[in-house]
Inverse folding.
């Protein structure tokens, strides 16, 4: 997944370990795209990679607007934001509040 984000030129890629924090997934990946179009292109590549790897098509939210696209790939949730939207919601801070040492920049 991380290599796909790198290939798509995603920026500020961060992974957060959710094990023991939430039952929704084991990991969260947060990344940014430079524009609406870039966010959509990143999400498309992630979805294509999931399908190629035999994980089917992940559930997707936010593709029409491409401000914030969420891809639920089962054990991994991927968020792709425009920078302003990412700053506003600040998921990194919310999900790593009680364990700041788990926030890993990639």
């Amino acid at each position: 997944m991380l290599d796909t984000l790198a290939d798509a030129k995603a920026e500020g890629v961060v992974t957060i370990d959710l094990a023991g924090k939430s039952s929704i997934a084991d990991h969260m990946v947060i990344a940014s795209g430079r524009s609406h179009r870039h966010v959509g292109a990143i999400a498309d590549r992630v979805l294509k990679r999931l399908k190629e790897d035999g994980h089917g098509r992940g559930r997707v939210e936010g593709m029409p607007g491409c401000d914030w696209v969420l891809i639920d790939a089962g054990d991994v949730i991927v968020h792709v934001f425009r920078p302003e939207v990412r700053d506003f919601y600040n998921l990194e801070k919310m999900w790593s509040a009680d364990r700041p040492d788990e926030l890993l920049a990639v």
